[in-house]
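Before a colleague's protein record goes any further, I have to sign it off. Would you go through it and say whether the fold makes sense for this chain? Take the sequence as given and treat only the tokens as open to question. The record follows directly below this note.
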Amino acid sequence: MSSVDPSAKEAIRRRQTGERVSGSSGVASLVRVLDETRLKPKAKEQEVLDVATEYFLQHGFRGASINAMARSSGISKESIYRYFSSKQQLFEAVIGRELIEYRRSLHRLDSTLRTMELRPALIMIAETILGIITTDRTLALRRLIFDEATRSPEVGRHYYKIGPAQAYEVIESVLESHPHESDFDIPTLARHFTGLLSWRVTLERQCAVRGEPTQEEIARLSVALVDDFMKAFLKRK
């Protein structure tokens, strides 16, 4: 690879560590360096998604266009349209990729949770979900999705299918594999559980009442929320 300018190095470092690549110059530098490496097609597609993710987070869905994205980043329109036929398809691909690790984390837990008692299993689920949904990046992505879903319901449905619905499935599986007594059926219990997890903490984050929680705070919150859930919705034997 040819020598890399400082802004490109910083853009690459931020992307590798999960930080946002801010500013059009940083994104453009990242794209130029990636082009120089002559990436294979699959890798190139991922880098198109890298650029699109940062552009959508900076400009929103309505404020973004393929032409403007190409101009500001230095990537060609042909490179974008080679993999994605429209802005909406590109946006949905961005959402899907951002949620991949969320889905993987949940499904990695599935087999482990079956061997645990119900309370620690629910605590582990709570820690996993809270550790993802309370980050600044996730909140920014959700704002973007919800804003667009008011005009394009299919965007909201796509997010729901590959995000929250996946969490319901894992929680339902755990409840089904652990004997318990309740006045509620399992799908209802799963939704009450995720509601407790997401409502209070997410609302406080969205209203800037709470900062991004530490791992210790997430652990304490998870225990408290699971205990509240079990007291409210499950019968004691």
User: Anything to note?
Assistant: The radius of gyration is 21 Å. Residues 1-5, 20-39 have pLDDT under 50 and may be disordered. The chain has 13 helices and no strands. The longest helix spans residues 186-206.
